[in-house]
Design brief:
The complex is a heterodimer of chains A (104) and B (158). Chain A has 104 residues and is mainly beta. Chain A has a single domain, classed as Immunoglobulin-like, CATH 2.60.40. Helix content of chain A is 0%, strand content 52%. Chain A is built from no helices and seven strands. The radius of gyration of chain A is 16 Å and the shape is elongated. Chain B has 158 residues and is an alpha+beta fold. Chain B has two domains: 30 residues; 114 residues, SoxY domain (Immunoglobulin-like), CATH 2.60.40.2470. Chain B contains four helices and nine strands. In chain B, strands 1, 3, 5, 6, 8 and 9 form a six-stranded mixed sheet that branches. Chain B has a three-stranded antiparallel sheet with strand order 2-4-7, with no helix packed on it. The termini of chain B are far apart. Classes of the chains: A mainly beta (104), B alpha+beta (158). At the A-B interface, strand 4 and strand 5 of A face strand 4, strand 6 and strand 7 of B. Strand 5 of chain A pairs antiparallel with strand 7 of chain B, so a sheet runs across the interface.
Chain lengths: 104, 158
């Protein structure tokens, strides 16, 4: 699952805005497969953490109610240009990925 | 006779321990450290109040005009409804996002760390026309705001 996260982090005044897109099916476990008529097992990201310089600036818990290929944006203060933002996710089937980007 | 009394005492004791154990298991006495892990009970709750009780510890909240929800009035596709929540409140600890009409209303919780501003955006699924509810925890108090979103095509199993 390499490169499942795209991150843009921009500094404006003293606020860093982080936008990220993750590639993930986000199955709720309630949807039926149109061909087999069987329920598609739940498979969704349930934990997302964003860290800058070893400090967690934001962590989120999600359910399958987040759309497929999730989008997340948030703002924070206290970082400068060139600092790295790392975003990591874990899903309910034990999958995980992380990526980082420099603040520009 | 003495044996019997001891046995009674023993049974009583073990039953009490059992009750506490069950309470912890059911999330009634959830230790603070456990809350950090993914809150299965909250995310599987079928009503807004149950979900809030499980995730924030209480369901009582007051409506607040300082929470802004940005979401479309009419969502053509319930599978992708962009939602932004922002507030000018100080000392926000966490934000919960719920879709009232969904099978399991709690969609996401955001825990703000050091330096984070109370402003998040994401995209959610909505099964049918209902209210999107934002609950902001600040200074131990819950504040909420809601916005109605009309869904023309459901996003859950459609």
């Amino acid at each position: 699952m390499a490169n499942s996260i795209k991150i843009r982090a921009k500094l404006k005044d003293d606020v860093v805005q982080v936008k990220c897109l993750m590639t993930h099916p986000m199955e709720t476990g309630l949807r039926k497969d149109s061909k087999t008529g069987k329920l598609v097992p739940a498979h969704f990201i349930n934990e997302v953490t964003a860290t800058v310089g070893g400090k967690t600036v934001m962590s989120a818990d999600w359910s399958g109610g987040i759309s497929k290929n999730p989008y997340l944006s948030f703002d924070f203060k206290g970082a400068g240009k060139g600092d790295e933002v790392t975003i990591a996710w874990k899903d309910n089937q034990g999958g995980s990925d992380s990526a980082s980007a420099k603040i520009g | 006779m003495t044996m019997n009394t001891k046995r009674r005492v023993f049974l009583k004791g073990s039953m009490a321990v059992g009750t506490v154990g069950v309470a912890v298991g059911a999330g009634l006495l959830t230790p603070q450290a456990v809350v950090a892990a993914w809150n299965e009970k909250a995310f599987q709750a079928k009503s807004v109040d149950d979900a809030l009780n499980a995730v924030m510890g209480t369901a009582s909240n007051s409506a607040s005009a300082s929470i802004k929800i940005k979401a479309p009035d009419i969502a053509e596709n319930g599978a992708v409804v962009p939602v932004s929540i922002s507030t000018d409140m100080a000392g926000v600890e966490s934000i919960a996002l719920l879709a009232e009409g969904n099978n399991t209303p709690l969609v996401a919780t955001f825990m703000l760390g050091e330096g984070a501003l109370p402003e998040v955006s994401t995209r959610i699924k909505m099964g049918k026309t209902s209210d999107v509810i934002a609950v902001v925890k600040s200074g131990g108090q819950l504040h909420s705001a809601r916005k109605s979103v009309k869904v023309t095509i459901g996003g859950c199993g459609g």
